[in-house]
Write a structure and sequence with these properties.
The structure holds two protein chains of two kinds.
Chain A (H helix, E strand, L loop, with lengths): L6 E6 L5 H7 L3 H9 L1 E5 L11 E7 L5 H13 E7 L1 H5 L11 H8 L23 E3 L6 H12 L11 H8 L4 H5 L15 H4 L16 H10 L4 H8 L7 H9 L3
Parallel strand pairs in A: 1-2, 1-3, 3-4, 4-5
Helix pairs in contact in A: 11-12
Chain B lengths: L1 E4 L3 H10 L3 E8 L2 E6 L10 E6 L2 E6 L16 H4 L3 E10 L2 E6 L8 E6 L1 H14 L7 H8 L2 E5 L10 H4 L11 E8 L2 E8 L2 H8 L4 E2 L2 H15 L11 H7 L5 H8 L5 H5 L6 E7 L5 E8 L9 E2 L2 E2 L4 H20 L9 H4 L7 H10 L8
Parallel strand pairs in B: 2-8, 8-9, 9-10
Antiparallel strand pairs in B: 1-11, 1-12, 2-3, 4-5, 6-7, 6-14, 10-11, 13-14, 15-16
Helix pairs in contact in B: 8-11, 9-11
The chains are: A alpha/beta, B alpha+beta.
């Protein structure tokens, strides 16, 4: 353990706070983390703010306003290592559903004086604006994965964050495939592992919360969904979840628009 | 050969438990026939069968109360002999070095595998070659394997994706078991023809009520198993197949498969012979305690062939080709047999139903070599 504890800062953009809260949700491990690092800037945990630079910056949320763009560039300068956490930060989040519409239609509908709203026309991942050192997927992220990344950074080793399919996790757990045995459409074969295959373990198809896996190939899976009786529109909606704007899911949903 | 009546089969499970075995066998769970701890004959999938096709599996009620009238399910015995996750060792910081605590092998369970099909015996024999009969020994595997008891069950019916006949691995168990059972239900009778395969099997049978089989009963079983052999769901022409695949390394079919393949790795996970694993090092936050874990890996993942400088198999085309040619071709050179036993799991459990027998046939029929025209 180095004498000087590494400084960790947490920042949020357009998001629900759920991912950064998984750090506070780490229970027993939280005390160990607090002992191993200096929490330098984490509004959800403490009003204490230590000046930058920071060793590790965790960023939650998507970039949706011109102000966000300026802020993320400043934050990037503060951190040696920048890790994005959660589907908003890595893919634009559920709010990226607006990327298929004209945002002015929404502001006119929602706000009494839409002229005060300054927003970008799309909700984008942090990586679209600044260099990201590591992306931690999920909606929400898995707290064990977050601890693993922090742990690996502290011990200067490679984090064990696999990028293969959810299917492998199902098989490692001994789950019976819900798609093959129960005809339940499942995004597991195109989705990155990380949640522990929660939904298939409870007889649900995977919702794709961790976004497209490595080397993903959705078209044959969609064809199989069609063969199972899913309508094209329903298939489009399956890909339009928390990771709708991740490229592979975006393309596949657009292929099923009409 | 001997006969054990249905009502006396419980005696075999009791005898195994009496000998200190943890009995594992087929049971219905989550809409499939899976392997789990077995305490009673009543936990077997009595009156169930399965329906298997490429990319689909289901269990159905039968009109009788057969105990073994189904084929292999999503699990294979490798999950017990070669667990999906295993701690290889732990290390604790001590002064300037580490104290290493190797994974214990002394307290491992002694398994009795109850209901092992002939193709699965062949798969276990293949994994034996890999894990304990070669130059390097996997101590964990060897300890579990050497202490395991195998009660085989012959397949009196075959499934829609079975092709053990093509691979010469079934449907009748020939070797590699302690006892082999064939379920017979005819003329109001329900009993098991039992073949003894080892001294252990013989001593187990002594503890179970049984009688000598009559010649007619043996002939009856021969007939039942021959009938099963003729109903294989799939066939694979293995004639010169290793060579055919080698000669078609650049066949356009590989690209065609890649367009359909999800590279999800399900085929390798369900395969009873696939033996690839990776190791992951974990530490606690202080770095004082470290562990090395082994877990199943697959040649379909991008990390699998990643080495310093890059990855030698960058596309699904090359990964699928690697998997299939390893199974059906290179394996022969490496281990003296093919790596496929014809169990059909990779066909059934592929979410999009890619069929290894159909792909191999397509390549042979449009071979780019002169070998098979």
């Amino acid at each position: 353990m180095p004498a000087k504890r590494p400084k960790v800062a947490v920042f949020k953009f357009a998001s629900c706070d759920g991912c950064q809260l998984s750090l506070l949700d780490a229970e027993d491990a939280l005390l160990a983390v607090a002992g191993a690092v200096e929490i330098a800037n984490f509004a959800e945990a403490s009003r204490r703010v230590v000046k930058p630079p920071y060793d590790i910056v965790l960023v939650e949320g998507s970039i949706t306003t011109p102000h966000d763009v300026e802020r993320i560039r400043e934050i990037r300068k503060m951190g040696k290592v920048l890790i994005t956490i959660g589907a908003c930060a890595t893919a634009g989040g559920i709010q990226a559903l607006r990327n298929w519409k004209d945002v002015k239609d929404f502001t006119r509908l929602v706000y009494a004086s839409p002229e005060y709203i300054s927003t970008l026309d799309r909700s984008m991942p942090v990586g679209s604006y600044v260099h990201v050192d590591f992306e931690l997927r999920g909606c929400p992220i898995n707290k064990n994965q977050l601890l693993e990344v922090v742990n690996a950074a502290l011990n200067k080793r490679k984090p064990n964050i696999p990028t293969h399919s959810v299917c492998m996790e199902c098989k490692l757990r001994g789950n019976v495939c819900v798609m093959v045995a129960k005809q339940i459409p499942c995004l597991g074969p195109v989705t990155q592992v990380g949640c522990g295959a929660i939904c298939p373990s409870y007889n649900r198809g995977c919702y794709g919360c961790f976004g497209p896996m490595e080397n993903t190939n959705p078209p044959p899976l969609s064809r199989q969904f069609r063969a199972m009786g899913k309508e094209r529109h329903d298939i489009m909606l399956m890909y339009r979840g928390f990771n709708a704007y991740a490229e592979a899911f975006r393309k596949e949903s657009e292929a099923h628009e009409k | 050969m001997f006969i054990v009546e249905l009502s006396d089969l419980q005696g075999l499970i009791t005898a195994l438990q009496g000998n200190g075995y943890a009995v594992i066998g087929p049971t219905v769970r989550d809409g499939a026939i899976t392997f789990d701890t077995l305490n009673s004959v009543d936990e077997l999938p009595r009156g169930w069968t399965d329906v298997q096709e490429a990319g689909s599996y289901g269990i159905r009620r039968r009109e009788d109360d057969a105990l073994f009238a189904y084929n292999v399910g999503p699990h294979s015995w490798k999950k017990f002999l070669f667990p999906s996750r295993l701690r290889l060792f732990a290390a604790q910081k001590a002064g300037k070095g580490f104290e290493v605590d190797p994974a214990p092998t002394g307290t491992l369970p002694r398994y009795a595998f109850f209901g092992v099909r002939s193709c699965e015996l062949a798969a276990i024999a293949i994994q034996d070659k890999i894990f304990m009969d070669g130059k390097y020994t996997d101590k964990h595997y060897k300890t579990l394997r050497k202490s395991a008891c195998i009660i085989a069950v012959n397949c009196v019916r075959v499934g829609g994706t079975c092709f053990c006949d093509s691979m010469n691995t079934g449907p009748r168990a020939k070797a590699g078991f302690d006892l082999a059972l064939t379920e017979v239900m005819a003329d109001g009778k329900h009993h098991f023809l039992v073949e003894v395969g080892s001294p252990l099997g013989k001593s187990l049978l002594q503890k179970v009520t049984h009688r000598e089989a009559q010649d007619a009963e043996k002939v009856q079983v021969d007939r039942i198993l021959k009938a099963a052999e003729d109903k294989m769901g799939r066939t694979l022409d293995t004639q010169k197949l290793p060579r055919v695949l080698q000669d078609n390394f650049e066949h356009p079919r590989w690209e065609d498969i890649a367009k359909r393949c999800l590279s999800c790795a399900n085929c390798t996970m369900v395969c009873p012979t696939c033996f690839c694993s990776t190791v992951e090092d974990v530490t606690d936050l202080t770095g004082d305690h470290a562990e090395r874990w082994r877990r199943w890996d697959s040649c379909f993942t991008t990390d699998f062939t990643k080495v310093a400088g890059g990855n030698m198999r960058m596309s699904t085309r090359t990964r699928y080709r690697q998997w299939m040619t390893h199974k059906l071709s290179n394996w022969v050179e490496q281990f003296g047999t093919m790596g496929c036993v014809g169990c059909g799991r990779c066909i059934t459990w592929c979410p999009v139903g890619i069929d290894i027998t159909a792909e191999a046939t397509a390549i042979r029929e449009n071979s780019m070599s002169t070998l098979n025209g």
